Amino acid sequence: MATRAVFVLKDDGLRQSTIYSEQKGNGSVVVLGSITGLTEDEHGFHVLLFGDNIQGCTSSGPHFNPLSKTHHGPKNQERHVGNLGSVAAGKDGVANVSVEDSLIVLSGDHSIIGHTMVVHEEPDDFGQRWK
Fold first, then answer.
1. Per-residue pLDDT at 1
2. Given 52, 53, 88, 129, which is the most exposed site by the fewest CB atoms within 10 A?
3. In this structure, what CATH number is given to the domain that contains residue 42?
4. What positions does the domain Superoxide dismutase copper/zinc binding occupy (predicted)?
C-alpha cells in the first residue's frame, strides 16, 4: 500500500514544480509543495481522470470522480475526489500548497496515483459556472 507519492507539475516551457503527498494514519492525505510560474491570483487545483496530459486537459479528462458525486468545493463531502479547490499565488508567482483531504487516497481503486494533477488559469468555481 502506497503511503507517499510525488507529483511533478510541468508547463509547456521548462518550469517544473514538485508536490508531495503522504497518507496519514487516520486515512487523510496531506498534499504539500510550492507551484511556481503562476500569475498572482487563485488557480483551480485538481486531479483529473487520466494520466495522459500530452494535450493538456483535453487528454487528461474531467475531474477524477470515481464515486459519481456532484462538483462542489473541497470542504464538502459531496464532491469529486479530484477537486482540491484553488491555490493562491502571490506577486512572486508562487503558490504554497498545504492541503489535508479525507477523500483522496494513495492506494486502492480510488487512488489518485497515475492521474494527472493540474493547476488551472482560473480559480475553481465549484461547478457554479455551468449551472
1. 65
2. 129
3. 2.60.40.200
4. 18-128
Residue 8, number of CB atoms within 10 A of its CB: 10
User: Is residue 104 within 8 Å of 29, Cβ to Cβ?
Assistant: yes
Q: Structurally, how many domains does the chain consist of?
A: 1
By residue count, the chain amounts to 131
- Amino acid at residue number 123: P
Residue in 2, 6, 65 with CA at minimum distance from that of residue 32: 6
Residue 131 lies in a domain: no
Distance, CA of 32 to CA of 119 (rounded, Å): 14
Nearest Cα neighbor of 34 from 79, 87, 82 is: 87
53-93 pLDDT per residue, tens:
777 778 888 999 999 998 888 888 889 899 999 999 999 99
Inside any domain, residue 125: no
